[in-house]
Write a structure and sequence with these properties.
By secondary structure, the chain is of the alpha/beta class. It has two domains: 2-356, no CATH class; 366-456. Helices cover 64% and strands 6% of the residues. It has 20 helices and five strands. The chain has helices at residues 2-22, 31-39, 53-65, 69-91, 97-105, 111-119, 123-143, 150-166, 172-182, 185-188, 193-216, 218-221, 235-267, 278-301, 312-315, 318-329, 332-358, 368-378, 389-398, 424-430, and strands spanning 384-386, 404-406, 416-419, 436-445, 448-456. α13 packs parallel to α16 (318-329). Residues 50-213 form the Glycosyltransferase RgtA/B/C/D-like domain. One of its GO terms (molecular function) is pentosyltransferase activity. It is a multi-pass membrane protein. It is found in: Cell membrane.
C-alpha cells in the first residue's frame, strides 16, 4: 500500500537524518557513548551493571562501519527505527496507515523517547526497541483465530530474552503481559500451555550465559543497586517513600501525555465514551499490570527511589494509547492539528540536539581532541589508565593505536595515569604504583569545567 511505504520511508529517513545530524553535535562522546565505545571494543559475557547485548551489537557495528561516531550513531538510530516499525506494523493490523503512523509519532509525547533516547541513551534505546517488538509479538499471539503456533511462541520467548539482555528492567514487560493475559478470559483462551513453556524455555536459554556471569561477578553486576535507595528505616516509612517515588516517576514519564489528554478531553467534552479496541486494551492492561507489579516489588524489596526511565518497558505505551484515544475522539480537523503538533515536537527536538552537544551539558563539544593531541605529543606510545569512563571512551576513540584502560582493567608496566577527580598521583598510589610529574588539563563543557590530572609512571 502506497501510504504504508510513505510511513516506513519517513521512519527510515528520520533515522538516517539523525545519523548525519550526530556529526553536527560535537567531535567528542557523551557519557553513555563513551561507555559503549570503551566496552564494545571486545566481546564478553558481562561488562558492568548493565546487560551485555547493547555492547555486543555495538561491537558488530564497529566491524561494519569502523570504530567511531558513525557506528555509534548507526546502531542507536537503527534500533529506534526498528522499534517504530514494530509499533507501526502492530497497529496496522487494526488501523489505517495515517492512524498507525500518528501513534508512532506519539512516542514523542514521552521525553525519554523524544529527547533522552536521541540525545544520550544507549541501553535504554535498545530497551525501547525490544519492548515494542515484544508487545507486537504478544499482540500476534493473542489475536487469533485459535491458538498461535510454536514458531510464534518461540519468537516471543527469544524477544523476551533479548529484551532482558538489553536492560534488566525489561523483564517486567513479559511478566506484566502474562498477568494481563491471565486476568482476561478471552486472552487466556488463546494461550497454549506448551507454547508458553516453549517461550519460557527460549527466554531462559537466551539469558542463561549473562546471568551466569552475573552470579560469578556479583560486585560488578550489582554496581547500580544503590540507586534503589534501600534504607534501614521502618517498613511503613519505606513503603510510603517508595510508592511516592513511583507515583512521581509515572508523572515525570507521562506528564506531557496527561497534559495533552486533558486538553483534548476539555475541547471535546460531551463526546461518547471511548471504547478501546483490542490493541488499546492490551497496552492499557500491560501498563496497569506493570504498575501493580512495580508497586508490589517496591514494598517487598524496601526500595525508596524510582527513576522515571526505569518505567520505560511498560510506561512506553502511554503515548500510543493516548494517540489512539485522541484519534477516536477527534474529527478530521483535530486529527490534522494533532499530526502537525506531533511533527512540530519532533522537529524541535531535532533542532535542539546540537545545543545539547555543544552548550548544555556540552559533553560532545568537550575538548578531548586537544587532550588527545597533547598526550600524543608529550607521551607517545605510553598506555593510559584512568578512573573516568568519559575519558576512557573518548581517548580510546581518538588514540586508537594506544592501550586505554579503566583502573580495574589496568595491567603492569609504565602508564600515563589520568584522573577525573583531580589527583592522578594518588590514583596511581591507590593501586600500589608510583607516578609523578603531575599536570592538569582543563576543558569546558556547557557552563562547567572538567579538570583531568595527568601523571606519568616509569
Amino acid at each position: 500500500m502506497k501510504a504504508d511505504r510513505h510511513w516506513i520511508a519517513a521512519i527510515l529517513l528520520w533515522a538516517a537524518a539523525q545519523v548525519a545530524w550526530r556529526f553536527a553535535q560535537g567531535p567528542s562522546l557523551e557519557l553513555d557513548e563513551a561507555e559503549a565505545f570503551y566496552h564494545a571494543r571486545h566481546l564478553a559475557l558481562g561488562y558492568n551493571a548493565q546487560p551485555p547485548l547493547y555492547f555486543w551489537l555495538q561491537w558488530a557495528a564497529f566491524q561494519l562501519a569502523g570504530d567511531g561516531i558513525l557506528a555509534l550513531a548507526l546502531l542507536k538510530n537503527a534500533l529506534l527505527a526498528m522499534g517504530g516499525l514494530a509499533l507501526y506494523a502492530m497497529l496496522r493490523r487494526l488501523r489505517p496507515p495515517f492512524e498507525a503512523g500518528l501513534c508512532v509519532m506519539a512516542l514523542g509525547l514521552l521525553p525519554q523517547v523524544l529527547w533522552e533516547a536521541q540525545r544520550a541513551l544507549t541501553h535504554s534505546v535498545l530497551a525501547i526497541a525490544m519492548s515494542l517488538v515484544i508487545l507486537a509479538l504478544a499482540d500476534r499471539l493473542l489475536r487469533g483465530p485459535g491458538r498461535a503456533g510454536s514458531g510464534l511462541w518461540l519468537a516471543f520467548g527469544v524477544a523476551a530474552g533479548l529484551g532482558v539482555m538489553s536492560k534488566w528492567n525489561v523483564a517486567l514487560l513479559p511478566v506484566a503481559i502474562a498477568v494481563a493475559v491471565l486476568l482476561r478470559p478471552e486472552w487466556r483462551a488463546r494461550v497454549s500451555p506448551s507454547g508458553a513453556l516453549c517461550a519460557l524455555g527460549a527466554a531462559l536459554a537466551v539469558v542463561a550465559a549473562p546471568l551466569w556471569w552475573v552470579l560469578q561477578n556479583p560486585a560488578t553486576a550489582g554496581g547500580s543497586l544503590h540507586k534503589l535507595g534501600i534504607e534501614e528505616t521502618a517498613p511503613l516509612t519505606r513503603a510510603l517513600e517508595g510508592l511516592g517515588s513511583l507515583a512521581s516517576a509515572w508523572l515525570a514519564f507521562c506528564g506531557l501525555v496527561l497534559l495533552v489528554v486533558i486538553a483534548i478531553a476539555l475541547a471535546t467534552r460531551g463526546r461518547a465514551r471511548w471504547r478501546p479496541d483490542a490493541q488499546s486494551r492490551l497496552m492499557i492492561a500491560v501498563m496497569l499490570a506493570g504498575a501493580a507489579l512495580l508497586a508490589a516489588g517496591l514494598v517487598a524489596g524496601g526500595a525508596t527511589e524510582v527513576k522515571d526511565r526505569w518505567l520505560l518497558p511498560v510506561a512506553l505505551f502511554a503515548g500510543p494509547v493516548a494517540a489512539l484515544w485522541a484519534l477516536d475522539r477527534l474529527g478530521a480537523v483535530g486529527r490534522r492539528r494533532m499530526a502537525i503538533g506531533l511533527a512540530g515536537l519532533w522537529a524541535l527536538a531535532f533542532a535542539l540536539l546540537p545545543v545539547s552537544g555543544w552548550v548544555d551539558p556540552g559533553y560532545r563539544g568537550a575538548g578531548f581532541p586537544q587532550l588527545a593531541r597533547d598526550i600524543d605529543a608529550a607521551h607517545p606510545g605510553l598506555p593510559i589508565v584512568t578512573d573516568s569512563m568519559w575519558a576512557a571512551g573518548n581517548l580510546s576513540m581518538m588514540l586508537p593505536d594506544r592501550p586505554v584502560h579503566l583502573v580495574a582493567d589496568a595491567g603492569p608496566g609504565p602508564a600515563l595515569w589520568i584522573s577525573g577527580r583531580g589527583d592522578a598521583v594518588a590514583l596511581a598510589a591507590a593501586q600500589g604504583r608510583a607516578a609523578a610529574a603531575q599536570n592538569l588539563h582543563e576543558m569546558e563543557h556547557g557552563g562547567e569545567r572538567a579538570v583531568f590530572a595527568l601523571a606519568t609512571e616509569g
